[in-house]
Every structure is written in C-alpha cells, then in structure tokens.
Amino acid sequence: RRFRVPTSSTMVKFLKSNKVVVLLNGRYAGRKAVIVKNFDDGTSGRQYGHALVAGIATYPRKVIKKHSVKKQEKRSKVKAFIKVVNYNHLMPTRYN
Known about the structure:
A five-stranded antiparallel β-sheet has the order 4-3-2-1-5, with no helix packed on it. The N and C termini lie far apart (40 Å). The chain is mainly β. The model has no long low-confidence stretch (mean pLDDT 88). The chain has one helix spanning 69-75; strands at 20-23, 32-39, 50-58, 79-86, 90-92. The chain contains one helix and five strands. β1 and β2 (32-39) form a beta hairpin. The chain is elongated.
C-alpha cells in the first residue's frame, strides 16, 4: 500500500495573519517577524506557499548612563523590514 500525502486543501492552516514567526534563512535569519498576509496556495509568480512578513531588522541595544546623548540615540534606534518569505523558511512560535 502506498502512503497518500495530504494535499494543501486538507492540511491545517496554522500560518495565519498576526502570527509571530522566526525567520530561518537569509539576511534576517533569527529575526522575529509577524505575518501580514499569507498565500497558502501560492501565486502565479511564486508557485509555493509564502507569506508577507514585517519585523524588526535592528533591535535597540543596551544604553548606560555614561554614554553620550548621541550614542544613546544611536543605540535606541529600531529598524524594520518587510519581506516575502517561503513557508519553508519560517518557524512559527506559540504567540499570536
């Protein structure tokens, strides 16, 4: 007997909007992101399941009292990113 692989229509959709994920590959590997929009069945340009994610590229760093005001401002900056990512390169977390 052959094992039947479930199709995308029968599989449970757990990567939904507002789900927190960790990116596994590329420039933003290890960064946390939130799914903005998901494409379970793919599109004509990308024929695989993927998602539009937004996340934090640069987190704020530790600031101490002896740092100058300029250095405190520089270390307090947050940089965001938006990216389209294949589902294979996302690891979901339990957080919504």
